[in-house]
Amino acid sequence: MRSLRPFLFLAVMALFAQPLTACSDDDDSKADISDDAGSTDADATGGDDADTQSDDADGAGGEDVTEDVGADASDGGDDVDTTEEADGADAVEPGLPQTCEGACAETALTLEYAGETGVLTRAAFGLTAPNATESGEWEVYLEAWEGGFEGCPTESSPSPDWTFIIGGFGLVEDTSTLTKADDGVFLTLSDYDGKFLGQVPFASAGVVAITPVASKIDTELVLQGQQDEDGFLALDISAVFDGQGETSGQIYAKHCVSMDLLQ
Questions:
Q1: 111 shares a domain with 81
Q2: How far apart are the first and last CA of the chain?
Q3: What are phi and psi of 186, to 5 degrees?
Q4: Residues 235 and 161 in one domain
Q5: Per-residue pLDDT tens for 149-207?
Q6: Which of 207, 134, 219, 131 is CA-nearest to residue 171?
Q7: Residue ranges of region Disordered (predicted)?
């Protein structure tokens, strides 16, 4: 709302102007006997007073209007800025890419351990439902294999030559790196033919880092016990086995209903 102060000021000035007019009529005789110089001085003085009053009135009114307009403009500016920020926030949808093609849709995870080298080229994942986890959230269980079988594993599938078992994390939502130290993710090497570990059946990595690349998972289908044919998970992975070896590369895993745990 605009300020009423300029209009109140002009009204008060008008009230003071009435007595001044009456007094000027009584002093006409005095003005007649004054010399030209005195008349000139009175005119000059009156002109200065009028100008001063006009300037004061204009200045007071202009100042108030300026403050009000500035306040209105400021309020309007805040409203516009807030709207723009809200629209911008709505327009940005955080999350991972839901498409993965070309090199993204490949598994190539290299392991160097005890002087031996191997490359994993197949991977799949399953989900553990919230009612079957301690966290009460969806959790991912992932395996990458070399040899043994094709497709999704079953109870009758032959054992692979060696495999990585990766878990300890939930449904990924962005590209934030997850680590064993901070987030509890783990990577375990199971060596069925003894190529890397000899007589030791498995080894756990002491340092693990997992960075999500892309993901598309339909938990509704999983809850219904169905295969998510379009479901996938792409991750960059690196791990160190306490000075004995290390692994790094990318995993592209498809969903396997046989790896889900719903109860």
A1: no
A2: 64
A3: -135, 160
A4: yes
A5: 999 999 999 999 999 999 999 999 999 999 999 999 999 999 999 999 999 999 999 99
A6: 219
A7: 23-98
